Amino acid sequence: MTTSKPHVVFGTGPAGLTLVDELLARGHRVRAVNRSGSAPVPPGTELVAADATDPDAMREVCADAAVIYHCAHAPYQYWGELLPKLQAGFLAGAKSSGARLVVTDTLYMYGPTGGAPMTEQTPNRATAHKGRLRAEIAEEYLRAHTDGEAQVTIARSADFYGPRVVNSALGGAVFFPALQGHPVYALGDIDLPHAYSYIGDVATALATLGAHQEALGRVWHVPTTSDRTTREVHTLIGQRLGRELGQDVLAAPIEHAWGPFDETIMREYAELFYQYLEPQVLDCRAIDDAFGLRPTPIELGLDATLDWYRGLVA
């Protein structure tokens, strides 16, 4: 049965749109919000234009919300300016409405770990500016919850992959060339384990955290596959295509355009390149223990991803 209060999803990129699908499948009334008011949302979705950095606009669009989901994206080069403004907007909407706020987050605040598995208790030891900024933002969200200003929970994921995911290390830089018979692009040491979060699992985790009062006030890691090297993932893709994939590997950070990535992306990402030079292992047992959520087997995730990409290159 459709709930009377809407679940309000901010951002209509891969995470936001996949979450809209998940919430509709659960029978919720869904409102999708972005700056333009234009997006390929499924039937039955209310689509609204609003600026998430405007607290007054956020109070208005969230006034009747049951749950608010922050899946909005800001380009790396504008993080210093936009992330604090986005946070102020989301907290304004959550405070005024009393709705639960589920925040989508990264792993950047942990910084280099030397390959040790990351848990929700791993200290924030970022060496990069972007990682320190993400740590400050997350700490402020949790402080707002602790102080009773808003009801907040945080969901952290690794690199996305899956249908709709193009701008990712396991996105268009891999699947487009793989399907077209060209070498795929990869970063760092591809023989180290690397964490990849299937976009469907991200959406399931966000919807589940928004549904449970006991999920509030803490960080959760979304179900993520960490037991494969990037080379092994490429091998699995090649097996599905019936041929071995060639690889164009960038071994160290650069600040100029490379492959499908423009100069701005490479320059901004250079400080985060350490993630591809050490094992990246994400411990996701907490969300499994609490809610029974486990990562989609990567073989199934890759099948679904290839099917989606085939529709783009056909």
UniProtKB/TrEMBL annotation:
Coiled-coil residue spans: none
Record-annotated NAD-dependent epimerase/dehydratase domain positions: 11-215
UniProt cross-references to InterPro entries, sorted A to Z: Epimerase_deHydtase, NAD(P)-bd_dom_sf, NAD(P)-dependent_oxidoreduct
Protein name, UniProt field: Nucleoside-diphosphate-sugar epimerase
Organism taxonomic ancestry: Bacteria, Bacillati, Actinomycetota, Actinomycetes, Pseudonocardiales
